[in-house]
Amino acid sequence: MLVGLIGLAVALLCIPVWLLAIRNGTLRAERELQDRLTISLRAVESEIERFRYLPGVVGQDGRIRAHLRGSDPPGEANRYLQAVREMSGADEIYVLDTNGLTLAASNWSEPGSFVGNNYSFRPYFSQAIASGEGRYYAVGVTTGIPGYFLSERVDDAGEPIGVVVVKVDMSPLEQAWAKAGEMTGIADGSGIVFLAGNPTWRYRPLYPLSAEAGAVIAEERTYEGIDVVNRPPLASAPLPDVGATGISMEDGDLLVDAVAVEPDGWLVFSALPLHPVNEEARLVTTLAALTAMLVSAVALFLWQRRQLTRIKLEQNAVLERRVAERTRELAHEIEVRKRAETELRETHDSLIHAARLAALGRMSTAIVHEVSQPLAALDSRLAAAGLHAERNAMPEVRKNLQSGRDLLKRMKRTVTHLKTFSSRQDPVRPEPVDIAQVVEAVCDIVEPKAREAGIALDVGAMAGLPAVAGNPIRLEQVFINLMLNAIDATRAAGNDHVSIAASSKGTCVAVEIADTGAGIPEDVRERIFEPFFTTKTTGEGLGLGLSITRTIIEEYGATLSFASRQEGGGTLTTVELPVHVSKRQAEPVA
Q1: Superfamily for 429-586?
Q2: Which of 180, 183, 206, 338 could be disulfide-bonded to 271 (CB atoms 3.0-4.6 Å)?
């Protein structure tokens, strides 16, 4: 609600600002137009007055008078007019008799000479005969070049004997306006623009022409060869007599002012586009609106800040009480979380140990067979040694005793691996581990299970591999779980081959276990790491093997992946273990 009121106030403020900006911009444009008109009017008058004296001076020359009386050859008058044209800068100078026939001209020797042409239809001739002088702007009927014609009658003994005409080129004014980019022009008494800074305005009506004006233009042949009557007018109505006014022209909305040039009846006008005025007004209004919005925003911010400060002060006691209560709750939660984490670690270790015992349980029959066989063989070797001792066959006695010792070493190694593997002393801190020794111990433990299942273990060469980061007991548990799964899968598929190999890959050692089982089904692949999920029959496993395996290898930054084998079928299990880096190696060299 408050924001809406502020927006309405800003909108109401913009209206007078817009009107004031338009008024100020228009006043500045009017003053500029008046300055332009003053300068343009003085330039037009100066251009005309510069040659105003010339017809009278030429008419006083004896050669011109003699030529008009017919007592002097035309050659002298023509050369004189030609010389005056060169010195004065006039466009052309020529002499007419009382019938309007050209007797001598400054261009007598040039193409398009005026000599012999009759110009009695031109107003400047009739004006000079009637009143003594005339002036008229038109397009030359002979040359097609426009100009301002100044004429003066030549009298002799009180009787007119001819008319001297000076044609003035006023195009420099037009060129100056065009170069300055001014929208200035001059219209004759009929409203035809004959000089303009904008070339598209030239020879067009300033406003719609009357039929009478069109008839006069045609009769006087003012714009010979140019159809000015049928051209579209620049404005829809005549310009006002006093003051500037805004009108719509083909160049857009313009502010136009004009001043009359007497006695020719011309209208000097100048225009300025209203677009900059509107743009300035829009900019000023926008700045005013932004300023008002900024002030309103600051005021609103201060008001809201005061309200918020009051609310905060009121709620401060409530917040402090709630913080104290929450602090006590968090302390209790932290204590509960610590106990839960401790219990979770203990449970985790128990699960790892349970998985280890489960693996031992799965191998128990094969292990018992592995130990009972050497015991029976040892009994046979000792009995044989006794018989050979009675016969005093000492070489045979020594051979049987050495065989018995080998059997004892084998049983000792097996029992040692089992005892170490079942121990619960499992430090998590990584240490350098020889992966070859881990694989050897794993193979010793799972070999009875493999032999019982009729599975051959193929162990690849592992010499020269770098030490990996981990714990030997936990890594043995990882590979025992993976080897048992490979043996079970191979046996279920009716095959008899499982291989294990290791290789160095940059900063890690990859151990690959390849079985020849049926592979991992797609519907099982996404669940194989779930705790207590198993595809074995009840009693053969807890469903914790792969879950515990992944947990162990993630503790040491290792990775575990399964892939289908391309040749021979089955599953390729890959464990990538990071190479152990000592603290000294990890420290940067100074």
Answers
A1: Histidine kinase-like ATPase, C-terminal domain (3.30.565.10)
A2: 183
Contact of 255 with 30, CB cutoff 8 Å: yes
Sign (positive/negative) of CA torsion 263, 264, 265, 267? negative
CATH classification for the domain delimited by 2-49+172-273, as one of 3.30.450.20, 3.40.1110.10, 3.90.1150.10, 1.25.40.10: 3.30.450.20
Is there a contact between 73 and 89 (Cβ–Cβ < 8 Å)? Answer: no
Whether residue 522 is predicted with pLDDT greater than 80 in this model: the reply is no
CA-to-CA distance for 243 and 259, rounded, in angstroms?
Answer: 9
Would you give the DSSP letter of residue 467? P
- Each residue of 218-259: pLDDT tens digit? 888 888 778 888 888 887 777 766 666 766 666 677 888 888
Bin 261: left if φ > 0, else alpha if -120 < ψ < 50, else beta. Answer: beta
Distance of CA 316 to the CA centre of its chain: 47
- On whether the CB atoms of residues 201 and 173 are closer than 8 A, the answer is no
Residues contacting 171, CB < 8 A, separation 6+: 146, 195
Per-residue model confidence as pLDDT tens digits over 261-283: 887 788 888 888 877 777 877 88
pTM beyond 0.90: the answer is no
Q: Which CATH superfamily is domain 54-169 in?
A: PAS domain (3.30.450.20)
Q: Are 25 and 42 in contact (CB under 8 A)?
A: no
For 536, the token pair is: 């074995």
